[in-house]
Amino acid sequence: MKNREKRTERRPGTSGSPRSGRPRPGGPAKGEREAGSVAGGRAAAEPAPQRPLIQRVGERPSERVPVILESRGAGDFHLIDSGNALKLEQYGPYRIVRPEAQALWQPSLPPSVWEKVDAVFTGDTDEDGIGRWRFPKEALGETWPLSLLGVDFLGRFTSFRHVGVFPEQIVHWEWMKQQVESAGRPLKVLNLFGYTGVASLVAAAAGAEVTHVDASRKAIGWARENQALSRLERAPIRWICEDAMKFIQREERRGNHYDIILTDPPKFGRGPNGEVWHLFEHLPLMLDVCRELLSPNAVGLVLTAYSIRASFYSIHELMRETMRGAGGVVESGELVIRETGIDAGAVGRALSTSLFSRWVRE
């Protein structure tokens, strides 16, 4: 799987936007956050060290496109309704309303349903903007317990509208869980830009050895809280608070390998020491290094991309070029969540949430 014949030079990253997009507490926006979640960095931006790209040889993997991976909710979550650039969701005991630019249509349910909610995010409606939560019925605590795929964790009302989990990724986590449980051997999972650790905990609960990387100390702290809540304190999880690019390049030099790699990078971010991340500039190298970290019997490499102005074909072709000579198949498309109504039993419209591309061994 390692075609090291030639390397082509790649220009190091440059300094980025002065906006760090740092939410509190550890709840970054998907579009702009730390380079490993996103952190408020130093005033002087420092590019992460980089190595040249490897020029891959061999046949590109076969392809499946377009692939639409659909979730209708799981555990304590489901999408009730959407429309007028908003979405109405159920997270455990709470019904909440948040902005959603993809919801161009009119809501299906009457205003009386939308008005009977526990929390509404208001303020800046931009994906990277800071706002606040309004609680129409009564003041709510900052956190509350949730469960997903057998893992318990904390929901949290963050100033960047997010609540600690991105439920559209359930489809990836279900796939990963099945791979781990059916492997017949302990799989090693690397979770880059791992945020609050729900995916890491799902993998560990299934029997994997997990390395979780995020540049936000608050996100790592939140993930450890979730680990305790899930009673997985003894599970083999390494929590690494570090710039993701620095970490994977060091792992490559050390010769470490993983069977499954999940990566969910922001479009822009800063690492804990001012390292700058720009998705369009640094994604090719990140995938290139991840390719080198895949074990000889690796199961998959999963990429999710939010808030970018690009077709899924952009990351699809990049993934196929990165995985030249590895065999397998690259499948790419969109993650969507299906509306299921108040009782989670209806079949409504599909709400697009993100692009994805994943290489899997057939």
TrEMBL record:
According to the UniProt record, where is the region Disordered? 1-59
Q: Which CDD domains match?
A: AdoMet_MTases
Q: Where is the composition biased (Basic and acidic residues)?
A: 1-12
- Care to name a GO molecular-function term for this sequence? methyltransferase activity
Top enzyme category = transferase
Pfam families, A to Z: Methyltrans_SAM
UniProt record, GO biological process: methylation
Residues of the signal sequence? none
Spell out the InterPro entries in the cross-references: Glyco_hydro_b, SAM-dep_methyl-trfase, SAM-dependent_MTases_sf
Q: Which residue numbers delimit the S-adenosylmethionine-dependent methyltransferase domain?
A: 142-272
Specify whether Iron-sulfur is a keyword of the entry: no
Provide this UniProt record's keywords sorted from A to Z: Methyltransferase, S-adenosyl-L-methionine, Transferase
**Enzyme Commission number(s) of this protein:** 2.1.1.191
- Report the protein name in the record: 23S rRNA (Cytosine1962-C5)-methyltransferase
Natural source organism: Pseudorhizobium flavum
